[in-house]
Amino acid sequence: MKFFADTADTEEIRELADLGLLDGVTTNPSLVAKTGRDFFEVLKEICSIVDGPVSAEVTATDFDSMMTEGQKLADVADNIAIKVPLIKDGLKACKALTQGGTKVNVTLCFSAAQAILAAKAGATYISPFVGRLDDIGHEGMDLIGDIVEIYANYDSFNTEVLVASIRHPMHVVEAARMGADVCTVPPAVLKKLFDHPLTDKGLAAFLADWEKTGQAIVS
Ligand code: G3P
């Protein structure tokens, strides 16, 4: 399973990249707005930190403008993936951009029917938003199970399932159990994956016992 960081904060991205656990980054207009920085400046910096795909989202909603924006964003770096919303023009742009050799991440997916359309449009990634489904009383992870199952039925569907809107470590664990290809994880959630109280307790005990021996591995 690949891990993408769901953030446009370059300090957080640097920190996660240093851990060696980062396969890519996803941004969206809200995450960029949160940084208060220039979009293109942020994108260039992110692409210089990570080799993997960096999703940059168009803000146009008609085909022609999406294509113009998509091309401009793709010119930022070789590892840009263009993010388009799951609307008719978005899927039309997805097909055209994909045919031109650009990676496309289709975002704002909330149903298996939408995910089928994205795969038919040749999307590189489909981004189902599990947390936002949970928020309205649905079981977000059921959608991931459905999409993984459906995509496995067709050799012609090469779209990767990119689990988005992740809110806690169990979303990641369930996504892995279901065989999703990628989780895009907010940095705070990614850090929580490390945590277990028995790890902390066990390490403290080992170190205390070692201290008693008076030895040093390197002196
Ligand atoms: O990048 C898209 C997605 O991960 C957004 O998550 O928490 O705003 O629902 P959230």
Structure description:
The chain is α/β, with parallel strands linked by helices and 219 residues long. The protein has a single domain (2-213), classed as Aldolase class I (TIM Barrel), CATH 3.20.20.70. It is 51% helix and 17% strand. The chain has helices at residues 10-18, 29-35, 39-49, 63-74, 88-99, 112-120, 130-135, 140-152, 169-178, 187-192, 197-213; strands spanning 2-6, 24-26, 54-57, 80-85, 103-109, 125-128, 160-163, 182-185. It has an eight-stranded parallel barrel with strand order 1-2-3-4-5-6-7-8, surrounded by five helices. It starts with a strand and ends in a 6-residue tail after the last helix. The structure holds SN-glycerol-3-phosphate. The site of SN-glycerol-3-phosphate has 9 residues, from helix 7. The site of SN-glycerol-3-phosphate (G3P) has 9 residues, from helix 7.
Short description:
The chain is α/β, with parallel strands linked by helices and 219 residues long. It is built from 11 helices and 8 strands.
Roughly how much helix do the residues carry, as a percent range?
Answer: 40-55%
DSSP helix count? 11
Category from helices, strands and their pairing: alpha/beta
- Please describe the biggest sheet, giving its number of strands, its sense, and whether it closes into a barrel: 8 strands, parallel, barrel
Q: Provide the CATH architecture.
A: Alpha-Beta Barrel
Strand content: 15-25%
Spatial order of strands in the largest sheet: 1-2-3-4-5-6-7-8
